[in-house]
Amino acid sequence: MPDSLVTLGWREWVVLPGLGIPRLRAKVDSGARSSSLHTDAQWRFTEAGAPWVGFRLTHGKARGLVVEAQAPVHDERDVIDSGGRRERRVFLRTPLRLAGCEREIEINLTNRGAMLFPMLLGRTAIAGLFTIDPASSFLHGRPPRPPSSADTAA
């Protein structure tokens, strides 16, 4: 455990490099046990005999950024949402980069299209490394925009 905890605001920019997501707004929520990631669509398949999930995420200004990713299924279990509804969700494990720190976290996939933030960062992802200042937002800035193919064309 680090000597001191890194302070987060109630909302922060995160990077999910293992899923090819270079930056995403997340609501930091110590009241939620698990972390959730918005998906527009999900599909299941088998890779080398193991269950995998593919998904599409649309986010950004006017939902203009589309990312498709895939990952092995870590688990599948029921989650009770903030409205009290029980839903069976797929869980994956993937690296999270936030505030100069990187750690592997567990994320469940669900449709958060009606929510303001495409990701909810729950307490199991922040435990032991981060603390929250509920009066602050985006304390660690916005990760740089990844270069587009137009930027790198010769």
From TrEMBL:
InterPro entries: Asp_endopeptidase (IPR008503), Peptidase_aspartic_dom_sf (IPR021109). Pfam families: Zn_protease. GO terms for biological process: proteolysis. The keyword Coiled coil does not apply. GO terms for molecular function: peptidase activity. This is ATP-dependent zinc protease. Signal peptide: none annotated. PANTHER family: ATP-DEPENDENT ZINC PROTEASE DOMAIN-CONTAINING PROTEIN-RELATED (PTHR38037:SF2), ZN_PROTEASE DOMAIN-CONTAINING PROTEIN (PTHR38037). Residues 8-142 form the Retropepsin-like aspartic endopeptidase domain. Keywords: Hydrolase, Protease. SUPFAM superfamilies: Acid proteases.
